[in-house]
Amino acid sequence: MISLDPLEQRFLAHVRGGAEFPRAWCAQGRVDSDIGLSIYANAYSARLCEALESDHPVLAAYLGDALWAEFCSGYIGAHPSRVRSLRHFGAQVPSWLAQQKSFADYPAIAELAAFERALLDVFDSADGGRGDWSELQSLDPAAWPGLRLKFHPSVRLLPTTTNAVEIWRALKDTQSPPAAGASSVPARLLWRDRERISRFRPVEADELVALRSLLSEQRNFADSCEQLAVTRAADEVPALALGFLRQWLDEGIISQLDIASDGAPAPR
Amino acid sequence: MIECVDSARASTPEARASGVRPWHGYGLGLRTEHFDAVLNEKPDVDWFEIISENFMVAGGKPRHYLDEIRARYPLAMHGVSLSIGSTDPLDLDYLHELKQLARQVEPIWISDHLCWTGNGGINSHDLLPLPYTEEAIAHVVSRIGEVQDFLGREILIENVSTYVSFANAEMEEAAFLSEIARRSGCRILLDVNNIYVSSRNHGFDADAYVAVLPAEKIWQIHLAGHSDYGDYVIDTHDHPVRDEVWALYARTLERIGQVTTMIERDDHIPALAELVAELDHARRIGESVLQPARAACA
Questions:
Q1: Domain residue spans in chain B?
Q2: Phi, psi angle pair for B4, to nearest 5°
Q3: What is the DSSP annotation of A189-203?
Q4: What pLDDT, in 10s, does the model give residues B210-252?
Q5: Yes or no, beta carbons of A27 and B126 under 8 Å apart
Q6: Would you call B128 and A11 a contact, using CB atoms and an 8 Å cutoff?
Q7: Which of A141, A222, A231, B157 has the greatest CB tally within 10 Å of its CB?
């Protein structure tokens, strides 16, 4: 008699990819076992495709039915789910698209997917505090060089080389998307605001330098100013950096202002 | 027919320990589409059932609405990832998250399905059928015991719709479910629609199925819609509850007495008011079936 483990292995292999499941292992009920097995197999691919479309509705619209089906089939085959929640099933979609020749020749596709995944992450990332301008004003000016910023957990900095976000916006508005091309800005910043609304905006080159330093590398304010001074005149940097701080605090993307004394990156 | 205790008494440790079936009234599955309507319309729903995994996220709107709705309604936690019948090891990370969520939600109970969802680390995200064998009973009972020990509470296990049954079966599904509930101490979440669907697909008598079950173990009933393709039926949760399932529900209550009941809708989700009206139908059936019995006892 067949035991539980091989039965499950063979059944799942059949459901996933049509590997043979011995018909002798099935009881003949009112519904033919071929039909019964096909119900499970159809549901498997349909459910995963539905999850991908739920996460990437604009990507699906951009690719069109035939390419979308090709993408789903390829991704589901390459990345069988090892996660408990469908919420995370598509986590490798951007990197997978970037590596597949048929899609990688059009880098806007992978960037469009990355943008949609970043929006998902922004939506349900952890909650956090919101620092404000008065906190910054209350700091001793002598402590400013050591200032480190703890950004809100929802903040995502997304490098962009293509006009994927413009394509996303057009399709979201049910307009014809622009032809694929280069991005007008080097990055996008995404976050969830105080009313739990997901926001995004372009990031220009100077702000990207500051964000990479303070957000990605968790460096202090003095280091960030030094980075800005590589491309900017030294006397321009304080006002520039202060302007960024003011904007970030107003947007609510800074959770906490930390004065670190040891020079080590503050934990996020 | 067995006696129920009301929800206030049911929440006491004494009531849970007594094994007397608690009564929480009539509930709905809480769906994202209805978050605002639940808060704004304050529907006449006794409780909501959440899909546990949907709230195993760090923050944002899902957790915000969960807190707001929990402040107004009792919640049950219904999971789809326990994979109690899988031969893979139990997912301890999942159990930790489930326990953490339960601490925050303080649910009336926690439930999942009598099925397996994956093997070899691969998740099908479907509720796959088990063979009704002694081996499977021993396996599932052992794992339910581990889960209940970990969570520090009994769980409810739900019968699923099935489309395939296995030649090595040593018993019928109802006996399989009953034996697991008896040996593990878990309760039963009886999905009346699933009984109907499986009875059509496998050709068994749905009423006989209910008659076999230990009535005192049945703590909750699920109702849902299905798609009827003539030769077979699929559990789709995208329609209102069908007449044949309402009829089976009424006969089930006649047999086992008052049971906390809810309606699931997962696709083609209508306005909340429409589901509340459908839930009122369940109330009316419950009252019509049970009032004569109460009158007879008076």
A1: 4-297
A2: -110, 155
A3: EEEE-TTS-EEEEEE
A4: 999 999 999 999 999 999 999 999 999 999 999 999 999 999 9
A5: no
A6: yes
A7: B157
